[in-house]
Amino acid sequence: MLLHQAATRDAIHQLFDAVKAISVQGYDEDRRVVYWNVGSELIYGYTRKEALGRKLEELIIPEYMRDHVIAAHQNWIGRGIEIPASEITLCNKSGEEVSVFSSHVLFYDEYNKKEMYCIDIDLAEVRQAQAQLILKENMLQAVFKATPDLFFLMEENGTVIDYHGGDENNLYVSPEKFIGKSISGLLPEKVVSKFRSHTAKVVKQGGVSSFEYELDMPHGPTYFEARISYLKADKKVVVIARDITKKHKSAEVIRKHAYFDSLTLLPNRFLSLDRFILNMEMLSAQKL
């Protein structure tokens, strides 16, 4: 961009003099600083007094970039080849890296000399947010790998849109067959019915709903506990399925020992008592 009026330049100086969030620097045709606002002091560490009169490449350009920056500036001044806006990594007074989004504009001063102005937006907070996001993503992936649970993200209508899990042996079908598909065509109808009713419950009431179900897997009957929650803001359903086969079998063993003699395998007094109470209740109901 090329602007010709010195008055416009002065007005822009006044506009950016007190701006702290954006760094604005002005350079003459020899790349010497002619303008340095408060934002530049904060981002790059040089005071206005320290920066004025010094060359661009001496202040904030890393050594490996200097030849390229000088050539780009000369091409714009001499040949009219604009410097495109982009994200770049510069350096501050302490030599530390500073990531900015940098845009450029050319002015003519009152002597018809060209001045280049750099408008830099500090990306430190953006980079920090990106780093935090990557950290959380890596932590989440580590959790997925460390736990045997299966995690599914679904639409309200039961369409599976994402999946994570450390043990794919407990998948009823492979991921490439269920991503983007509705569970109604993937699981037995009895299981689908449970998913539908509990999904409808959390969509309407919120909270977490859980239930157990059984699937015939290649390695034998497998029992699962599903916990369903609803992401209201995103209108998505999260399902966590846990293999509880061992727990289920242990409960069956305990129940069997409670009602059958461990030596003879004959019904013991607890089973007889339960059946007696049931028969009495049935007789009472018939009399009524």
Description:
The protein has about 290 residues and is an alpha+beta fold. It has helices at about 5-15, 40-45, 50, 55-60, 65-80, 125-145, 175-180, 190-205, 245-260, 270-285, and strands spanning about 1-5, 20-25, 35, 85-90, 95-110, 115-120, 150-155, 160-165, 210-215, 220-230, 235-245. It has three domains: about 1-130, PAS domain (Beta-Lactamase, 2-Layer Sandwich); about 145-245, 2-Layer Sandwich (Beta-Lactamase), CATH 3.30.450; about 250-285, no CATH class. The chain is rod-shaped, with a radius of gyration of 35 Å.
Please provide a brief summary of the model:
Strands 1, 2, 3, 4, 5 and 6 form a six-stranded mixed β-sheet that branches. Strands 8-7-11-10-9 form a five-stranded antiparallel β-sheet, with helices on both faces.
What CATH architecture label of the largest domain applies? 2-Layer Sandwich
CATH class of the largest domain: Alpha Beta
Multimer state: single chain
* Residue share in helix: 40-55%
Please work out how many helical segments DSSP would assign.
10
> Biggest β-sheet: count, sense, barrel?
6 strands, mixed
Provide the CATH superfamily of the largest domain: PAS domain
Q: Give the overall silhouette.
A: rod-shaped
Could you give the order of the helices and strands?
EHEEHHHHEEEHEEHHEEEHH
Note poorly predicted spans: none
CATH fold-level name of the largest domain: Beta-Lactamase
SS class: alpha+beta
Strands, total number: 11
Our count of domains comes out at: 3
Strand content: 25-35%
Mean pLDDT: 84
The value of Rg in angstroms is: 35 Å
